[in-house]
């Protein structure tokens, strides 16, 4: 849903990326700093009810999520280490965001349907980790797993928007409905990726790739003892 925005932000961040690199700031430092800031905000401001300022700040840093990647490409340092670090720390940030939302429900037991909110926030937290794991594990066995209706940016933005405006009067039920839909979309995405990996592995088993040592010009193999 937000791939077009990511492309736009990449263009916007190019001058900033060049400036940071000129100041000898590494892409890894930006990745780590962003994770620390988002995690701190989500686990302090969210549970204590500062949803407006907390949501706006986290949303601001979510927009900067691609800055480290732009810097790595500018510096010619794109590679498996940066991808691994970014993906790993993304799970920390995501867990903090949905964990902070869940703690808000826990610390506001007077809200209607509070248990519903706790449950769906927890479901988003768990399934939000399973979705990228399914892709990573599928790709580790040779599958291409670029399917799903609930990608990371979609989940974060759709959860943050209603949560942010709770403090200015948005009904809590709106947040609960959105989290429920996000949990269901994440579950569908998990099953989509499982089905995709299974289909590809089954196809490979039925039609294995040709052996590079076999030369079709040699004709059929000789029968021993013929």
From TrEMBL:
Subcellular location: Cell membrane
Membrane topology label: Multi-pass membrane protein
Recorded coiled-coil stretches: none
UniProt catalytic activity: 1,2-di-(9Z-octadecenoyl)-sn-glycero-3-cytidine-5'-diphosphate + 1D-myo-inositol 3-phosphate = 1,2-di-(9Z-octadecenoyl)-sn-glycero-3-phospho-(1D-myo-inositol-3-phosphate) + CMP + H(+); a CDP-1,2-diacyl-sn-glycerol + 1D-myo-inositol 3-phosphate = a 1,2-diacyl-sn-glycero-3-phospho-(1D-myo-inositol-3-phosphate) + CMP + H(+)
PROSITE patterns xrefs: CDP_ALCOHOL_P_TRANSF (PS00379)
Top-level taxonomic group: Bacteria
Residue numbers spanned by region Disordered: 204-226
UniProt keyword list: Cell membrane, Lipid biosynthesis, Lipid metabolism, Magnesium, Membrane, Metal-binding, Phospholipid biosynthesis, Phospholipid metabolism, Transferase, Transmembrane, Transmembrane helix
Binding-site list for a CDP-1,2-diacyl-sn-glycerol: 28-31, 69, 73
The EC number(s) this enzyme carries: 2.7.8.-
Any matching Pfam family: CDP-OH_P_transf
Required cofactor names: Mg(2+)
Regions crossing the membrane: 37-64, 114-134, 168-191
Catalytic residues as annotated in Swiss-Prot or TrEMBL: 90
GO molecular function per UniProt: transferase activity
Involved pathway(s): Phospholipid metabolism; phosphatidylinositol phosphate biosynthesis; Lipid metabolism
Main localization category: membrane
Binding site for Mg(2+) 2: 65, 86, 90
Family recorded in the similarity comment: Belongs to the CDP-alcohol phosphatidyltransferase class-I family.
Subunit and partners: Homodimer.
Name recorded for this polypeptide: Phosphatidylinositol phosphate synthase
Name of encoding gene: pgsA
């Amino acid at each position: 849903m937000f791939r077009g925005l990511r492309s736009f932000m990449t263009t916007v961040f190019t001058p900033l990326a060049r400036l940071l690199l000129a100041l000898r700031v590494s892409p890894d430092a930006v990745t780590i700093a962003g994770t620390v800031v988002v995690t701190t905000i989500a686990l302090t401001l969210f549970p204590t009810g500062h949803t407006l300022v907390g949501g706006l700040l986290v949303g601001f840093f979510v927009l900067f999520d691609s800055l480290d990647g732009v810097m790595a490409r500018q510096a010619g340092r794109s590679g498996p280490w940066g991808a691994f670090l970014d993906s790993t720390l993304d799970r920390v940030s995501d867990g903090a965001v949905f964990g902070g939302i869940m703690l808000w429900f826990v610390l506001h037991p007077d809200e209607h349907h509070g248990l519903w909110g706790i449950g769906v926030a927890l479901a988003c937290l768990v399934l939000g980790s399973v979705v990228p794991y399914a892709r990573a594990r599928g790709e580790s066995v040779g599958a291409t797993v670029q399917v799903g209706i609930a990608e990371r940016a979609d989940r974060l933005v759709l959860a943050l928007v209603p949560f942010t405006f709770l403090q200015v009067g948005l009904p809590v039920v709106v947040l609960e409905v959105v989290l429920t839909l996000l949990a269901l979309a994440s579950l569908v995405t998990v099953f989509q990726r499982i089905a995709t990996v299974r289909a590809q592995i089954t196809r490979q088993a039925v039609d294995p790739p040709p052996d590079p040592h076999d030369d079709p010009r040699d004709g059929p193999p000789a029968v021993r003892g013929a």
